[in-house]
Specification:
It is built from ten helices and four strands. The chain is α/β, with parallel strands linked by helices and about 220 residues long. It has a four-stranded parallel sheet with strand order 2-1-3-4, with helices on both faces. Helix 3 links the parallel strand 3 and strand 4.
Length: about 220
């Protein structure tokens, strides 16, 4: 099977390019596509969006319709599935999932699609594996890591920065969002290779892992 995976930023791409092969195994393939942020679900799901807008949700209706047409051309012995990975941030999970499913329902043809939501942010998946963080950053502050509650709404990337970045999130934030994005990509590249996909304390990571494996069954 082939997986087409959409993520909202470059750091998500770098993490999933490492993690997904561990989950699906060597007999399956994946391509991860990053966007320039999460954006907003358009009010009119049938309208084409501004091609200059590179945010994930703004383009999602068009993307799903396109994948529906493309997947129909795949051979039956090697089908494809679309996986959309996005952060919850401060949204209501139930409402957010309903909105994403409404986009899928509006599409024809409709590809096999799974929505996986990181709660609160992608860094929650790293924080679900403290050993992986400590392997990548031996000087990580244990007191901060141990005080984190998995998948809590607490400013997740800031929590990770406070544990592993010199000066913490306050110092990193002062450098601007471009610097934050670059550092997040560094975390993804350094932590992901150490992660044990079978032993993660983040419920949203486990949902993502099991969603991919469930499609393969």
């Amino acid at each position: 099977m082939h997986f087409e995976i959409l993520v909202e930023d470059e750091s998500g791409k770098r993490a999933l390019e490492i993690l997904v092969p561990k989950i699906i195994g060597e007999n399956h393939t994946c391509t991860v596509h990053p966007y320039k942020g999460i954006g907003h679900i358009p009010k009119n799901l049938s309208n084409s969006r501004d091609p200059r807008n590179k945010m994930l949700l703004n383009n999602l209706p068009k993307l799903i319709r396109g994948y529906g047409k493309t997947f129909n051309t795949y051979p039956t012995d090697y089908p494809a599935v679309l996986i959309v990975v996005c952060d919850l941030d401060d949204k209501c999970l139930k409402k957010y999932r309903e909105e994403l499913l409404a986009i899928l329902e509006s599409c024809d043809p409709r590809p096999i699609t799974g929505f996986c939501i990181a709660i609160e942010e992608g860094e929650a998946w790293f924080l679900g594996d403290i050993d992986a963080i400590k392997s990548a950053y031996p000087n990580a502050k244990t007191s901060i890591l141990d005080g984190y509650h998995n998948d809590s709404i607490c400013g997740t990337w800031e929590k990770l920065a406070d544990a592993i970045y010199a000066g913490g999130s306050a110092s990193l934030s002062k450098k601007g969002w471009q610097a934050v994005g670059k550092e997040k990509s560094n975390w993804a590249e350094k932590i992901s290779p150490n992660m044990d996909i079978t032993n993660n304390s983040s419920p949203s990571f486990n949902y993502f892992r099991d969603k991919l494996r469930g499609v393969l069954d």
